[in-house]
Amino acid sequence: MKASSPIQKVQRSRPAQAQFSILIPSWNNLPYLQLCIDSIRKNSVYEHQIIVHVNEGIDGTLDWVKDHPELDYSYCAENLGICYALNIARGLAQTEYILYLNDDMYVCPGWDQELLQAVRKIGHPFFFLSATAIEPVDSGNRCVIIRDWGQNLHSFQEKDLLEGFAQLSAADWQGATWPPNLVHRDLWDLCGGYSTEFSPGMYSDPDFSMKLWRLGVRHFQGLGASRVYHFGSKSTARISGNPGYFRFISKWGMAPSLLAQKFLRSGQPFDGPLAEQELTAAERWKSRFKRLQAAWRNPR
């Protein structure tokens, strides 16, 4: 694009051997972004294309990314949120598989090898995979491992993490939804990427899973052996809530929790592709009531 365009996309890498195109949206979060990319370089088994979308970048992020020619990047002077950021960055992806990674995540050794082995074992592109996050604070998410190796960069215990992460117990789980997540580029394009009506991003993750479900995807696998350390919402915590919950209900006719619990069986042990589901009479009535709530809220 021309320099005068509100959105810039810059392709510089030549990822001939790259396995994944890693999309990293970043909003004035340079120290975490630097650690994230450093962990990819140090702890990956394979080569990957790294694409950073810079929202604003007034903290030096844009200059730093420009100074690293091995990084591809897109840029907007305004904060467009995660959904637009991911869709813009996807336009630079050169590999068969697209991986969405938060900038406040640190990938652990072998994280990518486990994902690629799972892809090869599945043998078809109709899947959605997630790595397992290790988080310092228990948020009630059954799909993460709770272990405190630092809640910010100042308290981060990288050496202890590297020595101890593999000793933590975690089996594969159902309900892949959250980043880091991996999808074939054809599925990404077929479902239209991340839905911008959820900008700046709240509830866009279950929406993406629901779109894949409607396309017929039933393999939603979280990999216990593919791990990242997640400091936790270092960007989204700066955003006041948007009406994503009711947008989801208006769009899909059910609450995100029903998708997670009944359809995706999120956090349950992985036992293969998910089964078809029918709502019970009680679930249908409850969903109708929630749709009325959503219509009354009338999110725009």
What does this structure look like?
The protein has a single domain, classed as Spore Coat Polysaccharide Biosynthesis Protein SpsA, Chain A (Alpha-Beta Complex). Helices cover 34% and strands 20% of the residues. It contains ten helices and eleven strands. It has helices at 30-43, 61-66, 81-90, 111-122, 158-164, 185-191, 204-214, 244-252, 256-263, 281-297, and strands at 7-10, 20-27, 49-55, 72-76, 97-100, 105-107, 127-135, 145-146, 173-174, 181-184, 219-230. Strands 1, 2, 3, 4, 5, 6, 7, 8, 9, 10 and 11 form an eleven-stranded mixed beta sheet that branches. The two termini are 30 Å apart. The mean pLDDT is 92.
Topology:
Elements: E1 7-10, E2 20-27, H1 30-43, E3 49-55, H2 61-66, E4 72-76, H3 81-90, E5 97-100, E6 105-107, H4 111-122, E7 127-135, E8 145-146, H5 158-164, E9 173-174, E10 181-184, H6 185-191, H7 204-214, E11 219-230, H8 244-252, H9 256-263, H10 281-297
Parallel strand pairs: 2-3, 2-5, 3-4, 7-8, 7-11
Antiparallel strand pairs: 1-4, 5-10, 6-11, 7-10, 9-11
